[in-house]
Amino acid sequence: MIRLFRWLSGRSLAFLHTLGSLVGWLGYWLSPTYRHRFDDHVRSAGIAPAAARAAIAEAGRMVMELPFLWLRPASTPLASFTRIEGAELVAAAHAGGRGLLLLTPHLGCFEICAQAYAERFAAQYGPITVLYRPAKQPWLREVMEASRGREGLATAPASLAGVRQMIRALRRGETVGLLPDQVPPEGQGEWAPFFGQRAYTMTLAARLAQQTGAVVLLIWGERLPRGQGYVVRFQPLPEALPGDAAAQAESAAVVNRAMEHLIRQCPQQYLWGYHRYKAPRASSSE
Questions:
Q1: What confidence score (pLDDT) does residue 217 get?
Q2: Residue 103 — pLDDT band, cuts 50, 70, 90?
Q3: pLDDT tens track for 149-191
């Protein structure tokens, strides 16, 4: 498997995205569970089926671009195929010496967001720390750790130690990245509306901002057609988080509305098949 992964990493984005389109449609038609979940989520969100149809292929493109993004050589910088919009928001956020918390849903190429930040801003504002859960397969875990260990990019495990690591980074005035639409373990979230349905939502994002005074920005990476690259966009949070750290349910609702705000901008690249409304798993003892 690792040989195939490395071979794919040497192919062009255009090739990988073309292959990914096929993978996405195969997954949609071969898995009734995935297909029904995808269609149900689109319908309940009030998104026109035609507007979300392209997301079937985009899900496959997301998978097939990973070898290229994880294993590309240092001689191929993201700047050669990635454009950044909203860089002034990052500068303004760091101007007062405060930390920066970046939030992105499962939209577009979320894998590229941390790499793009590290390449463009880490030398000036310090590294970005991202939360991650190690892969179960040893070979894949090794590849992921090598990729996310790039210069200017640090990783924090999904544990209490990882939370402490992120708090320290923010208090140093550095940056932390999260995907707040991931379903957290039981006891680490609140039930809050998401596209009109109750979704168990992490409270970590709001707690990090409230405890450290960090500025919160939204970020997402749009995948351009025909393998042309990406656009990474920074945007302000549409509404402020509650100042009261005890208002966790309302904070979760604010974060969910922010994620909806981004997804509605590009519903054709959201992972509608993601099991967003599942019950949380039992908390780890770690």
A1: 98
A2: very high
A3: 678 999 998 889 999 999 999 999 999 999 999 999 999 999 9
| Ordered DSSP codes for the chain | -HHHHHHHHTS-HHHHHHHHHHHHHHHHHH-HHHHHHHHHHHHHTT--HHHHTHHHHHHHHHHHTHHHHHH--TTS-GGGTEEEE-HHHHHHHHHTS--EEEE--SBB-THHHHHHHHHHHHHHH--EEEEE---SSHHHHHHHHHHTTSTTEEEEESSHHHHHHHHHHHHTT-EEEE-TTSPPPTTSEEEEEETTEEEEEESHHHHHHHHH--EEEEEEEEEPGGG--EEEEEEE-SSPPPS-TT-HHHHHHHHHHHHHHHHHH-GGGB-TTS-TTPPPPPPP--
From the list 80, 69, 61, 145, the residue with the least C-alpha distance to 111 is 69
Can you tell me the mean pLDDT for 270-275?
A: 97
Task: Write the CB contacts of 112 (distance below 8 Å, at least 6 apart in sequence).
Answer: 69, 78, 82, 221, 230, 232
Report field, pTM of the whole predicted structure over 0.90: yes
Where along the chain do its domains lie? 78-266
Q: Which amino acid is at 106?
A: H
Neighbours of 65 (CB within 10 A): 23
What is the C-alpha separation between 62 and 20, in angstroms, rounded?
7
**Residues 21 and 72: beta-carbon distance below 8 Å:** no
Dist CA 162 CA 76 (whole Å): 30
Chain segment 199-212, per-residue pLDDT in tens:
999 999 999 999 99
